[in-house]
Automatic annotation (TrEMBL), chain B:
GO terms for molecular function: oxidoreductase activity. This is NADH-quinone oxidoreductase subunit K. Pfam families: Oxidored_q2. It is found in: Cell membrane. The keyword Transmembrane applies.
């Protein structure tokens, strides 16, 4: 069977492309990225089909060395869903970014264009590695690769404010990853292996392992930007160029989130931690409410979208107590709801950041109070923003609705009705800040400056991403069965 | 016995480094604290390697390999952070 090579190829090929892109220069790197994007998409679709049709995770032991001596890759349903999400979004961003970072024929190559394309490829490789690696230390390497690729994207324009945001992001990220590494040392010392599948069978809830999980979770939360550790996110994501913000908000924070899932429901699959999970979801609830309120108060559009990311990350953590306290169908609903939230938020937020970027480049600013007339000058962009907003709010029939509905019914099913209130309240607040932007955009005002010549392609890409996030809600629930495949916490 | 001492020294370094990263505001001091913290983690890995010694080896080779990889990653992170601090300083001079 050659199918088990696919996850390895999904990691190796973008790394090779990144290495090859550096000597090719800005123009060559751009062409290489655009040429690789369909290949990466085909690999992701292939992995998804193999996992879906086979019903079991793809597993590959690198060099035929079995763990614990060797290292294995394992693409389960969650990994397949995230790989496909990453491939679609990065492919779309690559096309969108040609206007900002492309090098026209005959033009001189610019420094930030030269940096952007290899970084995008590196980020893709890192995301793919973070979702398919089955070894805690390989995951550490993936986490660092993700940070090293994402940090320069924050400060591509080289202004002082973005450099400061990038430095702050790097400090949070470094603290997070070194704490994670400390946990890896403690787990290896107590269990003698780092393979997640083996750990799931071996680990008992003894003290060193509990300390390790606590330290690693804290480190990963700093990288995922869950509420008390979110301070780096708004300046970093709002200051980056639109194409970069879209990848950062849509994908980079999800990489470390997948790691938290692997820890809690992979390594600790046999040791439920319902009390700690309540704390985690409590932080998530605080993120939803405070992040949304902060978004309501922002004067600048990109900061509003960035605070909306802080809030939406909160939803991801509501699945933890629901999974820890229940089994069977309710737990399955919570798991699916969490993963669908991650995927639909990725598409909606990428679309929203691209729409915000298009508006900012047309108006020359992104002050929400001065956006009047946007609806007349750029109806498609405002429609994109609205559709993405509907998905974030959880209005049916969007993907965000499917996610929030699943979480809501799992919360009721698990007898934890208070999370249902948080989900509903968060939806209302989200509606509030999306309405603020739309109401201002639809108001009659000074006509915006003349349209830029390539705007329709960029609008089309942003609209397509927003439509994907809405169409996710039309998928029959059976299609979400994919993400159940290979869950370690229900393995016999 | 040496394993225990290394482990304790590692724990002390982790404590100092964590304190520095959380309390210090100066970027360079925080980068140094990060390196102390990383050094402490590597010492803990070393203690783990010594405790896992067997089959005639002086230590378990897996944590040792992890230490080497970790040092490379930490070095890369430090250079990246220092480069960023230098760029920031240059931007301040221009402003």
């Amino acid at each position: 069977m050659a199918w088990d090579m696919l996850p390895m190829l999904a990691v190796m090929l973008p790394v090779l492309a990144m290495v090859a892109a550096v000597p090719l220069g800005a123009r060559g790197a751009e062409r290489l990225t655009l040429a690789y994007a369909p290949v990466g998409l085909a690999l992701a679709i292939g992995i998804m089909l193999v996992v879906q049709l086979g019903g079991v995770p793809i597993r590959q032991e690198l060099g035929h060395w079995a763990p614990p001596l060797g290292i294995a890759f394992r693409a389960d349903g969650l990994a397949a869903a995230m790989l496909l999400t990453a491939a679609l979004i990065i492919g779309a961003i690559a096309i969108f970014a040609r206007a900002d970072f492309g090098t026209a024929a005959g033009a001189v190559e610019r420094r930030h264009a030269f940096a952007f394309w290899p970084l995008l490829l590196g980020l893709w490789a890192a995301i793919n590695l973070a979702v398919v690696a089955n070894d805690l230390f390989t995951l550490y390497v993936a986490l660092e690769l993700l940070t090293f690729a994402a940090m320069p994207l924050v400060c591509l324009d080289g202004s002082r404010a973005t450099l400061q945001a990038a430095l702050r992001y790097l400090m949070f990220a470094l603290l997070g990853s070194v704490l994670y590494l400390l946990g890896v040392a403690l787990i290896y010392g107590s269990a003698g292996t780092l393979d997640i599948v083996l750990l799931a069978q071996r680990v008992r809830g003894d003290i060193p392992v509990m300390i390790a999980i606590a330290v690693m979770t804290a480190g990963l939360l700093a990288k995922t930007a869950l509420l008390p550790l979110h301070l780096w996110l708004p300046p970093a994501h709002a200051g980056a160029p639109a194409a970069a913000s879209a990848v950062l908000s849509a994908l980079v924070v999800k990489g470390s989130f997948v790691l938290v899932l692997r820890l809690w429901f992979g390594v600790m699959a046999r040791v439920p931690m319902p009390d700690a999970a309540q704390i985690l979801a409590g932080l998530g609830a605080a993120a939803i409410l405070l992040g949304s309120v902060a978004a309501l108060g922002q004067a600048r559009l990109k900061l509003l979208v960035a605070y909306s990311t802080v809030a939406q990350i909160g939803y991801l953590f509501l699945m933890f107590p629901l999974l820890a306290a229940s089994a069977g169908e309710v737990a399955a609903k919570a798991w699916t709801g969490g993963v669908v939230q991650a995927v639909s938020h990725a598409f909606a937020k990428a679309a929203m950041f691209l729409a915000a970027g298009i508006m900012a480049s047309r108006f020359g600013h992104d002050r929400i109070a001065d956006l009047s007339g946007a609806g007349r000058a750029m109806p498609v962009t405002l429609l994109t923003f609205a559709l993405a907003g509907l998905s974030l709010m959880g209005v049916p029939p969007s993907g965000g609705f499917a996610a929030k509905w699943l979480l809501l019914s799992a919360a009721i099913g698990a007898g934890q009705w208070w999370w249902a209130l948080v989900i509903l309240g968060g939806g209302l607040l989200t509606g509030g800040y999306v309405y603020r932007v739309l109401a201002m955009g639809l108001r009659a005002g000074d006509p915006a400056p003349e349209p830029a010549p390539v705007a329709w392609q960029r609008d089309g890409i942003a609209l397509a991403l927003a439509l994907v996030s809405v169409v996710l809600g039309f998928l029959p629930l059976a299609a979400f069965g994919l993400v159940q495949i290979g869950r370690l916490d229900v393995a016999p | 016995m040496t394993g225990t001492i290394f482990g304790l020294v590692g724990a002390a370094l982790i404590g100092i480094g964590l304190f520095g990263m959380l309390v210090r505001r100066d970027a360079l001091l925080r980068i140094l604290s990060f390196n102390l913290l990383g050094g402490g983690v590597f010492l803990v890995f070393g203690a783990v390697a010594r405790r896992g010694a067997g089959a005639g080896f002086g230590g378990d080779p897996v944590p040792q390999a992890i230490i080497l990889t970790g040092i490379v990653v930490a070095f890369a992170a430090t250079t990246l952070a220092v480069a960023l601090v230098l760029r920031l300083a240059a931007a301040k001079d221009r402003a």
